[in-house]
Amino acid sequence: MNFSLFASKLHAAVAAAVCAGALAWLLAEAASPGSREGSDRVIVLTSGWSSFALMVACFLYVPRKYFYKLRARLQSRRAPTVLRAKLTERSLALRDRQAALEEAAEGVQAVRYEVERGLHTSQSAVKDRVRQIVHSHEVGDLVRVVVRKRAGSPPLEVRLDPREPLGRMAKWVHAHLYYGVAFALLVWLHGGGSMASLLGAVLTVSSAVVALTGIVGILLFARGPVWLTPKEPDLGYEQCFALSEHLERKVREVLAEKLRRTGPEVERVLREGNLQSLAAVEGGSGEEKEDSLDLEVLLEQRQRFLTSLRRLRRTKFWMNLWRAVHVPASIVLAGAVVVHVASVWIY
Amino acid sequence: MPDDLANDPLAKDLRRQPLLENLSDRYMKYLVKAIRTGAYPEPPTQQWLASVQDVAAGHVFVQQGAFSTDFFVLLRGVVRATRAQERGRSLKLGEIRGRDGWNWFGEVAILSSRPAFATLKAVDPCRVLQIDREGFTRLSRDRGLEAANPKFGSLTEESFRRRSTEELLRGAPVLEPLDQEEIEALAAKAEPRTYKEGETVAQAGVAADGVYVVQGGIVKVVLEKDGRQRFHAALGPASSFGERALTQEGKWPATYVAMTRVDVLKLPRELFQEVYGGNERTRKNLEDTATVLVDREEGRLGASARHTVKAADVLVIDLHRCTRCNACVEACVSVHEDRVPRLSKRGMVTEDRTSVLTSACYHCQSPDCMVSCNFGAIRRSLNGEIDFVYDACTGCTQCELSCPYGVIRMAWVAGEAAGAEGREGAEGGGGRAEGESGPRASRLLRSLPILRGIFGGSARRAPEQSAEAAKTTEGETRRKKAIKCDFCAGMPFEACVYNCPCSAIRRVSPEELEFEAAGAT
Known about the structure:
The complex is a heterodimer of chains A (347) and B (521).
Chain A: H1 9-28, H2 40-69, H3 81-96, H4 98-116, H5 123-136, E1 143-149, E2 156-162, H6 169-191, H7 198-231, H8 237-261, H9 263-272, H10 286-346
Antiparallel strand pairs in A: 1-2
Chain B: H1 3-6, H2 9-15, H3 25-37, E1 50-55, E2 60-62, E3 70-76, E4 78-84, E5 90-97, E6 104-105, H4 107-112, E7 119-122, E8 126-132, H5 133-141, H6 150-170, H7 180-189, E9 191-195, E10 200-202, E11 210-216, E12 219-225, E13 228-235, E14 240-241, E15 255-258, E16 262-268, H8 269-276, H9 280-297, H10 302-305, E17 314-318, H11 327-335, E18 347-349, E19 355-358, H12 368-372, E20 378-380, E21 386-388, H13 398-402, E22 409-414, H14 440-447, H15 449-455, H16 463-472, E23 478-483, H17 495-499, E24 505-508, H18 510-520
Antiparallel strand pairs in B: 1-8, 2-7, 3-6, 3-8, 4-5, 4-7, 9-16, 10-15, 11-14, 11-16, 12-13, 12-15, 17-19, 17-24, 18-19, 20-21, 22-23
């Protein structure tokens, strides 16, 4: 199970604080979710705008994800100037300040030795020490300090990781996950699960579907790879398709040769659909026997390979099925929210 | 001179060129005919073509990295030579002027069969005489009774020697801080030397007398420790050694022996003093670079550099975290100009089948790939990383065959002329990245999970097919070149690590990996 998908303490804390705050307020005011009576109006407005903000935060994940998926590059002229400049500056800085970086790394190495000898045991003390070293060499803008606990010796892992201009994709996934769940809760507090109007029903249903499929998805992504790995042949996923096509081509070639030699009989076997008995059709000369053996081996290989490939594809299909619901439901939800906000604004 | 040639304005114009002034009448007649007809002149005694062209300012004669088979004599105008460097920087190498000194170019590409070192572009409207490879060979080598022109051969040979020497020196890491004039001055006075197989180039313990740049062949570096000789490294073409001659320390740390017949250029210590003369800044830059190189050689940077130099690390994919979403390959495609993914998801799978050590370059101490490359396209950088000089790569596949770890693979890439937007389908790390081909809008549609099936997801496309398709795409020049994972060299982060949504791919030091493996067992 990949627990790192839930690893962000910051986003978890923010989402939990928003949810706890909203619930506490609702309980303190003794208001019911979605009610528009008296002081509830303030709650409704606050929860509405908060959930809108959370939704925007969730949707920001999409451009971040597609930035690379669409082959955009930070160095590209199409990339925002600020980002491009930042990246270029960082690349050059890494090169120009190599000496300072190396000196800082040398200092950090000394800390590692101290940790190894047991001179430091406190994670925060080590982090402060390393940060001090990094800042004294003025490379804090290029690298960030990572200090993690680990089993065995040394008890702490100390790393200097490069800073990234767009932030790690994994962090965005964490934000998307936590804010998505918080968003679903706030929408319920805001609307009370109202199905009175068409728009209300669309909003309620789509937000619930998005949240549920999202949770299913994240659980599948956390657990799925463990199911996927044993099903995967020694080759990578893409090479599987290549090999499958290669085997098919070879079978077709041998088959065509057989068909040329003993046409009607092979055709009969093909009609019956029992490909395995094809190998037995031909006897005759040594060369023909060899061909038959080749075909037998090829068919067996192909069959075995296709079975494992089908299993792999099935697992991958089920692992990704949730997205077929999650993405369209999110698009519907976004559209409904825009209509809802616009109508509230206008009326 | 026959009358027809004496009165021909084209012949007269050509005769004014220093390279063509002594051209025999037979060849001049052929040249004029070939230019006029644009075909092989009758009777077909020889088969080569020539033309005179008028081009506008900005016209590119030769593109850096491309293979050129034409020789040019600049009759009028100015041509500038520039070399594109990393991070979009451009280095001006000089200008060639019509009727001024060596007013020709293209002989290095023809004689060395190497891709062009620089881009040659017209600064003004130019008039050039263009001769094909066959014609150039005839004109420079015909020494028979009706010799083409003895001067043509000797002049082009001289310019070839000088220019290829400058190219070679420009590639030596220690000479990086020098400007073009200084490189030219060094090239003019560099001492070419040849060593037989087994001969010692430099002996350990003796004072280093200069910087050596390997022109051809392999030099073996042998270290002596506890009375035993140990093979330390092999230096191939375009490698250099002897940087300590420029520092205060000054003694050879190892013995350098020719493994094959070796051609080297020696740059004596005194020559540098002559070149930088009173220029204190150049002297300091050179000494600083030399100090870094010497420190690296002696392993002084070893421990400290481990965490900043990417080369020492390994890319590991955790199979129990990876959802096979291909985001890593897509990110890899994005950050490389030629749109070829360097990441290979293949590699060594751990025994418990939970991790893959991807096929990233190990930057071997004695890199077989570098030794096998005859074109000087593989070099070691200041950081100790093995880098590809893509402009010099001919796609001969020697490095791919010689890499003991299967890290190097060949890919079809868009040629320089096609620009960086050319797309590629490389075999290997996930094959062609998903949704790569086609217009941007259709790629967007295909990248959505539901629509991918409708528009035909490319994940099912076989890598071979993709590579084949890349070859036949219209309107793009394509060539094969060697690629390998370079840990996003020149970038402040590794794109695959940075874009993995599941934190499944990471960079770890070998010690860390060893530690984890020990913990797992």
